[in-house]
Amino acid sequence: MTIVDTLTTIVFFTMIAGFTELFVVGMEPVAVLKTRVIMIPMMIVTGRPYGAWRDLVFKKAKPATALSKSVADGVAFLSFQLPVYAATLWIAGASGREILALLATTSLLMLLVSRPFGLVLDTVRKCAGVSAT
């Protein structure tokens, strides 16, 4: 489960963030590559813990409809990733005001990717023959 969750996290978010950095923000390809390589250790550290957290949220919420599953994915993602992102920003030297502004704007993006990532994670787990614990 650890390998599946971690590799899925790395591949999914490297693709999403790389696309965003390259085509939306306009970063140079070398800068995108450097950024993505720097983020790999963070994704290695958080990949499985997030998967376990998401499993717990789903176990407690027991979502049955597509909408409730989307809400559960959003709650799981925001409640796990926002604190991780805030800590990363703090370590990087961002001010309290900058952190709050970035968290507010990043929350929307996190909500948008939370369900697609959850679906990908479920699919990869199924293909790998592992299930939520």
From TrEMBL:
Coiled coil: none annotated. One of its GO terms (cellular component) is membrane. One of its GO terms (molecular function) is L-amino acid efflux transmembrane transporter activity. The chain crosses the membrane at residues 7-25, 71-93, 99-121. It comes from the Bacteria. InterPro entries: Ala_export_AlaE (IPR010574). Pfam families: AlaE (PF06610). Keywords: Amino-acid transport, Cell inner membrane, Cell membrane, Membrane, Transmembrane, Transmembrane helix, Transport. The keyword GTP-binding does not apply. This is L-alanine exporter AlaE.
